[in-house]
Amino acid sequence: MQKYNFDNPPSRRGSLCYKWDCKENELPMWIADMDFEAAPEIRAALQRRLDHGIYGYDDMGADWYDAYLDWWRERHGLTMERENLIFSTGVVASISSLVRKLTTPNENVLIQTPVYNIFFNSIINNGARVLESPFRYDGARWEMDFADLEAKLADPQTTLMILCNPHNPVGRIWSREELARVGALCQKHHVTVISDEIHCDLTAPGVGYVPFAAVDETCRQISVTCIAPTKTFNLAGMHSSAVYAADPVLRHKAWRALNTDEVAEPNTFAAPAAIAAFRAGGDWLDQARAYIWQNKRLVCDTLARDLPNVKAAVSEATYLLWVDVSAVTNDVKDFTDRLRAETGLWVTPGTAYGASGEGFFRMNLACPRAAVEDALARLERFVRRNR
Asked: Are 358 and 322 in contact (CB under 8 A)?
C-alpha cells in the first residue's frame, strides 16, 4: 500500500521554483528535480531545527558522519573511513573545485558522452579541456567504448576522468566488471577518477549499484567519490553533500580544494536534512522508487503501443528517461523547441549532453502519474501532427 503522497503534491508554481518558472500551460519535465514532497521524517527534523530559533555557524557532528557511513555500508556495500569523508555544499561545486585542484591549465578531462551537461562547464570554467569518449548505442542500450576510452586515456595530456555512476542521462548502472576495466585503464595511464554518484539510490526496485570505490583496491585508491542525499530525497535546496577519498594524498587535495573555494561549510539545515534522510528516509525512498518505475513502465508501454517510432533506451537508474526520437527527427533541438512551443511539454534535447545525444531527449518522471499521462498525450499529439 502506498504510504506517501506521490499523486497529489502541493503546487510549486509561484514558490520561486526554478523548474516551474514557466507559462501556465507548460508542463516542465526537464531539470532533475522531483515534484514530490520530502519524506515527513525529514520535514519533522527540519522543523525541530527551525524551532530551536538560533541559526548561527554550525559544524558536522558525529551523527552526520555515521549516517553516511552506515547508509553506504548497509545499502551499497562500501566501507568508508570517517577521516576520509568531507562535507561539501554540493556535488557540482565539489567537481568544479576538484577539477581546478587536480589539473593544470589545458590538461584534458575525459568524460563519456552523452553526459550531464554541467560537467562541460566544470571542466571549461576551470581552465581544462573537455575530451569526449562517446558511448556506443545498439538501438536499445548504451555501452562504454573501451577501445576509444583507452586511446584517450593514453594521451599524456589526459590527467582526470569524470565518471557518472549511475549514468545521467542514459540511465545505465555500470557493472562491477565495467568499472574494474575503467579503473585498470586509469591506473595504467595515471589518470585520477572523480566518480559522481549522486543518482546512486535511484535504481530500479530490487536493483543495486556498485560504488566505484567498492570495486577493488585500484578503484578505491585512484578515485574521489561525490555523494549526496539531495537527488535521492529531493533536497537540492539544502546544499548538502560529501566527498570521499581513501588515498591520503587525494584526500588532502580534495580537502584543500573544497576549503580554498569555501564550499566546505554547512548551512543550518544541511546536517539535519542528511541525517534524517539516511536514518529515517529508507521506506519513503523505496516507495518513491517503485512509483517512479511505474511511471517509466507507463511511458515505455504507451510508446510501444501508440508511438512505435519513439522509444526509450533501457533505463536501470535515475528518475530520468532517455527517449529516442531519431526515427521522427534529425534535429532534436528543433523537435524539443517546437514540442514546447506547440504543446507546452518542456523536455531537454539530447544535444545538451554532447553531440552524441542527437536524436534523443531527456524527460523527468519524478512527478505525479497524472502529469506523466498528460505528457504522453501532448507528445503523441505533436508527433502525429508533425510526421
From this structure: no
CA distances (Å), origin 70, targets 42, 105, 228: 17, 38, 14
C-alpha grid cell for residue 11?
Answer: 503546487
Phi, psi (5° rounding) for residue 113?
-110, 155
Scored b (16 or more CB within 10 A) or e, 130-168 reads bbbbbbebeeeebebeeeebbebbeeeebbbbbbbbbbb
CA–CA distance, 116 with 320 (Å, rounded to integer): 12
> In 208-247, which residue ranges form alpha helices assigned H by DSSP?
217-221, 230-233
Cα–Cα distance for residue pair 172/143, rounded to 1 Å:
8
Domains along the sequence of the chain with CATH: 27-38+282-386 (3.90.1150.10), 44-280 (3.40.640.10)
The residue type found at 100 is R
Ordered per-residue pLDDT tens for the chain, 387 residues: 678 999 999 999 999 999 999 999 999 999 999 999 999 999 999 999 999 999 999 999 999 999 999 999 999 999 999 999 999 999 999 999 999 999 999 999 999 999 999 999 999 999 999 999 999 999 888 999 999 999 999 999 999 999 999 999 999 999 999 999 999 999 999 999 999 999 999 999 999 999 999 999 999 999 999 999 999 999 999 999 999 999 999 999 999 999 999 999 999 999 999 999 999 999 999 999 999 999 999 999 999 999 999 999 999 999 999 999 999 999 999 999 999 999 999 999 999 999 999 999 999 999 999 999 999 999 999 999 987
